[in-house]
Amino acid sequence: MREEDKIYVGDVGTIISCWVDNDISAGTYFAMKVKKPLGTEVVWVSDLSGITNIDYEIISGDFNEAGQYEVQSHVILPSGEWTGKTTYIQVWDEYE
Asked: How far apart are CA 18 and CA 49, in angstroms?
């Protein structure tokens, strides 16, 4: 990762994108299930991007802890409901 690509506590406007293996364009609900570094679990309601991605734009308070965030896509389609593989996002303290 390049230095300019680091994500810091308090950052706002960063786009988080999750790629899904299948066409999810018929979906009725898109979200990212997130476990923060201290164990708090939250849901970031997301937007469809193309036919196989969901995106979420970070808002104030989302990245309020330094450490590793665990993120899973969550999609509801007329044919069922799925949670994707866990991916990890490192969020750094200021000046790290």
From this structure: 9
